[in-house]
Design goal:
Mean pLDDT: 87
Strand content: 15-25%
Helix content: 40-55%
Number of strands: 9
Distance between the termini: 40 Å
Bound molecules: calcium ion
Shape: globular
Low-confidence stretches: none
Length: 172
């Protein structure tokens, strides 16, 4: 299998450098773009396996980049957001981000998320497995939950917690 290529889209050079250094240390190849337009250009010809995408970017912001990426394929995307950007997070996840990380972040955590998203996206697509517990249903792949057929609006953290609880019922 080829070494995964990660496109780091971040206009703050020191953050981008740290991310690239940690990713490379873990054996990934990296490319970097410092604004939205060059991100899309690079994504088009370098065909990254995953995009680490800052939300606040010059030229074209991260959510616009995400929208365009989503309209042309399903390259996994992890958003880099600033603290308190709940709206951006929600919007980002609805637009189809695979995960997000809040700044200031621990680069090791980001690299771990990259690994997790790549594993998830490279897994052979499974017939959707829905977990059930009483009236609750969780689709861990689509990251959607329902209670008595009503779709729940959850943050990623709430979703993960719920998924865990449904997966391991009757445990403290
Ligand atoms: Ca930025």
């Amino acid at each position: 299998m080829n070494t995964p290529l990660i496109l780091v889209v971040e206009d703050e050079a020191h953050i981008a450098e740290v991310l690239e250094a940690y990713l490379r240390r873990d054996g990934y190849r990296t490319e970097r773009a410092a604004d939205g337009k060059s991100a899309l250009r690079l994504a088009g010809h370098a065909r990254p396996d995953l995009v680490l995408l800052d939300v606040h970017l010059p030229q074209l912001d991260g959510l616009e980049v995400l929208k365009t990426l989503r309209s042309s394929g399903n390259t996994p995307v992890i958003l880099l957001t600033a603290r308190g950007e709940d709206l951006d997070k929600m919007l980002g996840l609805r637009l189809g981000a695979d995960d997000y990380v809040v700044k200031p972040f621990n680069p090791n955590e980001v690299v771990a998320r990259v690994g997790a998203v790549l594993r998830r996206s490279s897994a052979t697509p499974q017939p959707t497995e829905r977990l059930k517990a009483g009236p609750l249903e969780v689709d861990p792949v689509a990251m959607v939950a329902w209670i008595a057929e009503t779709r729940l609006e959850l943050t990623l953290t709430e979703f993960r917690l719920l998924e865990h609880l449904v997966r391991y019922p009757n445990r403290t």
